[in-house]
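ugh ok fine here u go
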Amino acid sequence: MSVRVSVLPGVLGRWMILLPWALAGCTYQPPPDPSFAVEVKIKGDDGQAIGAAQLNIDGRSYVTDALGLVTVEGLNGPVAGIASASGYLSEPVMLGWEDAAKPVEVRLFDRKNGRRWVLHATGDAMFGRRFEEPVSGPPLIPAGDASRGAKKVVSRIREVYRAADFRTLNLETTVSTLGPEDAYFGKRFILNSRPGTLAALQDLEVDAVLLANNHTRDYKEEGLRQTLDALDAYAFKHLGASVNATDAYKPLITAVNDLQVGLLTYTSVTGSFVNNSYPAADLPMPADLPPEEVWQYEQRVWSFAGETWDVPAKPRRIRTVWGMFASRESGLSEEETAAAWASLVKVYPEMQDWVARRGHGGAAMWRSSEARAAIAKLKQQTDVVIVQLHSGFQYQEAGSESLQRNARTAIDAGADIVICHHPHVLQGVEWYKGKFIAYSLGNFVFDQDFLATFSTAFLRVVWEDDRPIQVRLIPVEIIDYQPTPVVGKAAQRTALRVWEMSMMGAGAARDPDDNGVKAFVGEQDADTRRPGFVLDRHTAVITPVENAQTRLQRGVAAGQRAAMAHEGLVSANLGLAKTDADIYIGRDIFGWGDFEDLAADRAIDQGTHWRTSGRYKQTVVGDAAQGRGMLQLSRRPDHSVFTLIRPVARIPFRSHRLFERTPDGAVSLDPPPSYSLEFSARLQGSAVASTRFDIYEFDDTNPTEDPESVLVNSVSLPFEAGADWQRVVVPITEEMLSSGQVTGNMLNFYFVLDPPPSGRTAVLEIDAVEFIEWRLAGQMPERFGAYQWIRNDSATDLQLDFSALVP
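structure:
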């Protein structure tokens, strides 16, 4: 295999492009002192300083002077806490290294004699699986001490999440003492948490636990019964699921200050899609089918004799029987439906149904007509109606089209805010008829190992009576399965991604041609407004007014690249025509290659989301290429094998991100991507340094099969580095991403250092790592996005003029 590269004049490199660091738009910065102090000024929302206000941060308490000032000293990393004062709403506060440069202003809302209050809402939470049985190391939640372990898991986020008057949490797990033998037959992903883990929700001071999701019935009726009993034992208010089909749909009405707040929650993830995906009667059984999957092809005898429906006894596959039942269900009475279903699942216990219907309990299922009536009734009974929906497609950037319809339907019926979850990743937000919708809050406490699931947030809404006066996104990073507040570039990156996804103007749907999920553009509803974003103190304030556009000018020399150097969103097509060639726009789709301490985790941590261990592969503070931190690998002459390091999770990549529907099918609106791994490197001593890429095809499209991950290719490429920092660019070719007819859709990269052949120890230092997705700018759709780079592959110097949004 060979990799085509262009080498700048006077710059040597066999496989890579070596760029002087200055060409990347950055300069060397000496490391600051090992600790820092931050001056904080606390004001009211009227701008007046608040004396005797409290700042509880990182386990320490401070009190402001008469000018509202306090200095937090001796910090060695980011911290999180709460600012509070009598008569004011408490406010989360995050402080990082960059805050040492100038005073930090924190504004507290006047409570207005109880008229103002705060809602906090999260995405998905569970406390089982890898929390109890990790891949390596001791469990975060030991089986014998689940309460203490679960409280430790949420300890980093506890203080900032509690800074509210009303807090909700979607509990996406059963809570029981049941074992694997009790789980729902045939269900692919089973979640269960020990009853003691509910102590974490107690620590978070959760006021309402939401259960309308696709995992509350993972252990059938007994698991659901134990879940409800466990919540009752901790005196938690809960809604959205029950052991009968009536109580599952009951709203929760509770008092917040002098207001009556009502909640309803539903899911559209019912299990029917799984049943529809079982193999049809004429599909032959694969020769290599694992024995545990044979049941999908078995012919079992089932019959049913009802009032209006008779099914003769005959051997049939599960998919055939499901089709028979699904086609007749709407014409059956409620009693006959329950009888038919009970008869059917005795023979086919793998038939999936996760919601409260058909004579059994489960989660509250979204049915538009019933939901509209329930929301309208609740609005008559309460001052504020909160609706939460568990719906959409997993791991997608756009909310599903059906979820968008349902969320807007909820507001039409009387909901004052709609908050959604289930995709396990953050999605966009919008304003509809002046009401706020968040399409996915991602994960909150979860054990998933996908890179896209790590960056998340919780929602903070400040209300005055029944009207939101501020909506704020609090960025969070799930680090080693623990939700952790983040600051600086990490918080900004998360906020910008949510802002970009909010500006997509697209909805996700299945493409009937290939059954894949795609983001399709659509016309903006006249009642829908895209949000404005204001970056504020490591958070984002979301407004109903779109941000103003400005013009940016960027010069890019021939054969070079230039940093965007803009903290907001920019026009993806850079103002170019589709015929303009050789000008690329790029973004880092990895995001964790700076090795800076950005997590409020009570630890000095430069290597978030990297597998570092011991002195031979570690992160250190020193004269880095930029900032303070860098990655360091070392080998002695007596070592017999190389050392290597990689991120903790693979990087997913997509051929296309946006589509439109045409009479001929789905057509992509963005051009095909190319990729490069770019980093700064220096090497002390004599040894071979290289990068390695493992490319995988990951397939989880069939809900009747376990996800499959296949290694497509593995490529190692050496690079040259000297005693001074140099910029290295590794092009990722199409040849590397494919093998035969199989093309990968995610990869992991490694830095590798061989032992030195002789002499002193070799030390390889790495900094400013980016995995960049490039696309031809002129062929990009007219959308705004969070891009960092422009690349000019032409032979002509360029001066670009394009639109941008100012945060």
